[in-house]
């Protein structure tokens, strides 16, 4: 017996025991329960954490089983993404949502648009998680509501076979609720602040929290200059804080993604505490740029001196008070960061790079895997990269190294539309197309995401509509470019009243008021023009 039928029977029994409940229809109540599978954010976090753990194990067994997500800045965008995935692929397997701190800063702060520097309200992060899951749960209710109406119609027509077919869909319904990888930036303060925010994020439904090793009050976007990292001990304290938050709330399978910005970060705010040569603090300090000195006479007023490698090192200190790392030490620092994080509670890694280059990523991951064999990455397929130019230049360089004639191409101008139909451009596009599969196989990338794609799609589609609508095309710009495409591509939102919940509201009115219900979906509803 399906859970749907079990609920009908259980509610029927309750109604028998309570005379005043005679107006309650057990099947309607069971339907409402089925449409709201997840009662709390913690239910969602536990459910989605188990999905991620399963997916991680499947990736370890077969790198072709990588996962993907797109960043969404509003619940509606996340909802439409998952509706689209179910429509085109039949299921949501290995497809997640990403919650981008960049997009919260740019689009969801009460201060207005902000750069990605952790200046936005920290409460905006769990608020967006809750909003995303509210819209995904509504997508469940809307789709199931359609199935319930089809079931009633089949029953009314006496079509038992059709009714059984629809009932099977109801009994085996796949939710739109999927894991969210959620960005907590650098923790918005000290480890206690990190713990408190992590709790709110988990309570809202987050099963995976991504945290970075930048200084919280100096945080910069991963693709901007001026990034400042913290000693490992500080970062590990925040990893611990997130783990304690998961355990306190009973999300034992919660996932921590440890991000390192060391590849592009040339600065540190602190000299690490070290107790003996070769400990973690000593390793961190070994990357400091500076000069070895012989005596106190070499020390100027205000200089800082540390003992390193048995000698006195005077680190280079900037007017800001920050210390510099040695040039060219980024990859070594990344490898140490990643190994340290995995050995101290992190589950996945995030290496922020300056370009999408599989060889570069693989070189670091292979070094990490010498110590932690099952190390795997979440990777930012960033819109900050010029993908077209990067890959055309990679092909150019590979061809040149192989001795192929590249005299027809200007490497610095490969972005030009003049090259779009060339053999080089086609090869570059093929590499872009296979980048995720290739990087999953060769560079240990378990999860591929685009941080802020819907920021760009919203801008692009709005520009196209505005250009036509306020220009010579007028209303045709909307009809031809939007509505006609919605109808022909089967975009559910063409019935926007239905998407916003009008049919669900009508169902509930009928449940509550019976024949007296005033419903919105009658013959005069213009939504009927769309069939």
First-to-last CA distance: 35 Å
In which order are the strands of the major sheet placed? 12-6-4-3-2-1-14-13
User: Tell me about the biggest sheet?
Assistant: 8 strands, parallel
How many helices in DSSP terms? 19
Unreliable residue stretches: none
Overall pLDDT confidence? 92
Question: Can you give the helix content as a percent range?
Answer: 40-55%
Beta-strand content: 5-15%
Structural classification: alpha/beta
In total, the number of strands is: 14
Q: What is the overall silhouette?
A: globular
**Radius of gyration of CA atoms, rounded to a whole number:** 28 Å
Catalytic activity: D-threo-isocitrate = glyoxylate + succinate
Pfam families: ICL
Protein name: Isocitrate lyase
GO molecular function: isocitrate lyase activity
In terms of topology, how is this protein built?
Elements: H1 3-17, H2 26-34, H3 41-61, E1 67-71, H4 75-89, E2 95-99, H5 101-107, H6 124-156, H7 160-171, E3 180-183, H8 191-204, E4 208-212, E5 228-229, H9 232-248, E6 255-260, E7 267-268, H10 280-285, E8 290-293, E9 306-308, E10 311-315, E11 323-324, H11 330-342, E12 348-351, H12 358-369, E13 377-380, H13 387-401, H14 423-433, H15 435-442, E14 445-450, H16 453-469, H17 475-489, H18 496-499, H19 502-513
Parallel strand pairs: 1-2, 1-14, 2-3, 3-4, 4-6, 5-7, 6-12, 13-14
Antiparallel strand pairs: 7-11, 8-10, 9-10
Helix pairs in contact: 1-2, 4-6, 6-7, 6-8, 8-9, 11-12, 12-15, 13-14, 16-17
GO molecular function: isocitrate lyase activity
Protein name: Isocitrate lyase
Keywords: Lyase, Metal-binding
